[in-house]
Amino acid sequence: MGRAGFGGDEIGAALIGSRLVRDLMRLCFLMEQQYAPYPKWFGTAFMQLACGPELAPILRRAQLAETWQEREQHLCAAYERVAALHNSLGLTEPLAPTVRPFWGRPFQVIGGERFAEALAGQISDPVVQRIASRSLIGGIDQLSDSTDLLSDPSWREALRGLYA
After folding, report:
1. Where are the domains of the chain?
2. CA 102: distance to chain centroid?
3. 119-139 pLDDT, tens digit each
């Protein structure tokens, strides 16, 4: 998001920022073990999560920000709160819930791969370990939010190859 904004593409940065908001919201559903509905009801359902009332105003400010710098500020606040939520689950050793510079560039990130790798390190099932040993691409809903794709079981066999 920052790289797009830094390059002068504020519309692109806003789009990426909104995708990051969506990803954080999906992560909250996962952490609270709640179903994430399709977009029509997504925001309403998010507000029913324990973390929804605290995070929603921050995420909304990120979406309404005029500049990538302002958007980044709000996203970073949300990243840190969601990282603290991760730590409260006790699934991994606590990880620093603070943002940091992105490889010496003028962008702040949470380093989400740290959390994914720590979670993958807790997997004991050999079949799941084999899947997790590949690039961590996340669930299918992170690749597409197409309701047709996500809800039609006939796609499952074709999509299985992504995780084989």
Report:
1. 2-122, 133-164
2. 17
3. 999 999 998 888 888 876 777
Q: What is this structure's pTM?
A: 0.88
How far is 60 from 126, CA to CA, in rounded Å?
41
- Ramachandran angles phi, psi of 101, nearest 5°: -65, 145
Contact partners, residue 49, CB within 8 Å, separation at least 6:
28, 29, 32, 34
φ/ψ bin of 8: left (φ > 0), alpha (ψ from -120 to 50), beta (otherwise)? left
Contact 76, 112 (CB under 8 A): no
**Which DSSP symbol is given to 162?**
T
Q: How far is CA 154 from CA 17, 37, 148, 151, in A?
A: 32, 20, 10, 9
pLDDT score for 132: 83
Distances (CA, A) of 68 to 2, 46, 101, 106, 121: 6, 24, 15, 11, 34
Q: How far apart are CA 37 and CA 26, in angstroms?
A: 9
Transcribe 37-76 into DSSP letters: --HHHHHHHHTTSTTHHHHHHHHHHHHH-SSHHHHHHHHH
Helix (H, G, I), strand (E, B) or coil at 52: helix
CA separation for the pair 63, 23 (Å, rounded): 13
